[in-house]
Amino acid sequence: MDTKITFQKTSCYFCSEWLDDKTVKGHLLTCGQVLEKCPYNCLSYIQRKNMDNHVKNCVKRDEKSVLVQNVADDIQNERLMSIEENLTFLRKSLNEEIRMRHDLIVELGHLKKRNQITDEWTSKVSEVLNLLQKRIEEEKECRQLEIKDFHGVIDNLLKQFQEIKGFRKDMARTLGSIETKIVSKTNLDTNAAYEDDVPEWKTTCKRLENELERLRFQSSDDINDCVKYISAINDKMNQIEMLQQNQHNITDDGLMHSLSRLDKIETELTATSGLLSNVNDRTVKTDYNVKQLLNTVNEIEDKSDKVVKQVDIYKELVYETKQSLADLEEHLRVQRQFNMITNIRGHLIWRINHYERKLNDAKESEVPLKSPLFSNKHYGYSLRLDVYLNGIGTWKNRNLIACLTVVNGDYDTLLPWPCKLKADIILREQPENLNDATDITKLVITKKRNDRLEYQNQFIHIPHQVINSGAYIRNDSIVLEVKILKTFDSYNGFKPDTPNSGTPTTQII
Known about the structure:
509 residues; alpha+beta; Herpes Virus-1; Apoptosis, Tumor Necrosis Factor Receptor Associated Protein 2, Chain A; 3 domains; six-stranded mixed sheet; five-stranded antiparallel sheet; 6 helices; 15 strands; 16% strand; disordered N terminus; disordered C terminus
């Protein structure tokens, strides 16, 4: 059994004023009699309780609705144009950022290429410098070896010169001793002896002179050879010094050129590093701007999604409110029409007008159409037929779905629970000749919403093709009939109900 909720305040149906339960009935009677001007300016003043009927039939309604629709369309178009302009601006900003990024990437590619060429040229210069340094070292080693050989030759020549000089001194000393002997011998010996020794002395002197002459020529030849060799050595040394000077000049020129080139490269690298830092800064700023744009786009999308969801919720609430108001208005009209007669016979005939419009409304929302309340007997269960014109779940867009619902009643505490109601739901055909009518009858079993028992046949479905094929729709209306057959008792099973026989009550919406 459902929990009964009691509200202490109620909103007025006409002026939306909140009222206590004690004063709501009197206020409704008074407020409903108030005259109001027609909203479509047809120069009529209508009571509030009859305003809805007048609005539906007002001759200027179509013109006003067209104007309202045009204004709503203009507002919607302006909003769409504003959103499109914002999206266009965002696209342009993103395209500009993409173009700037592309330019930066191309510029970075050129800089990388220049750096690569500079690195290759630097490596080649380093290789040439290393090769020159190696050649210089080899040349120095060769020069040192030659100088060492020259020093050895010079030492040998000096040694030979000293030997020749000593030999000459010995020869001079020997000649001096010979002369001394000759003088002494002249004084002591006689002339005969002197004459005997003179040939020997002459021979000796001649031999000594020849030897001295030979030594003089040999010494002069050796000296000339030494002088020539020394001059040749000096020439070679001069050539070596000139070659070394040329090598030093070439090396110095190459080093100066390399240093100047390295200075230029260093300057270019400094400028490149500055440019790269600027590019990195611009890239960071661009990334930040892109992230901000993306965040803005995401926020706009989130807000748009939320707005769309809220609009859908509001549409659902508006439609449900409109449907509830229409049902309430129809129920009030029916109650006024039948002078507050309550259907307690367990038999209901319900006419649904404006079928096409209500079917289109049902395609946008799953809010069911609700029939007037009726009962299976005096002080019995309060019943209502709920109809989904466009279906629900797997039957959506293909079938009409109906179910019989037990709602809270004033006498629920006096009735046995749990309770099942078994009824026939009939879709009445409306041909020209009633004898040719072929009604569609479906068996349904319903229960209270919080009842844990589950049974089949709680919903009946009728395909749209079947409804459109016969004469079930006439004057844009369909007719549904409900007949309560049996009541299910959880202890005694199904037992027949005992409603009073009579003419069923017909309800039209």
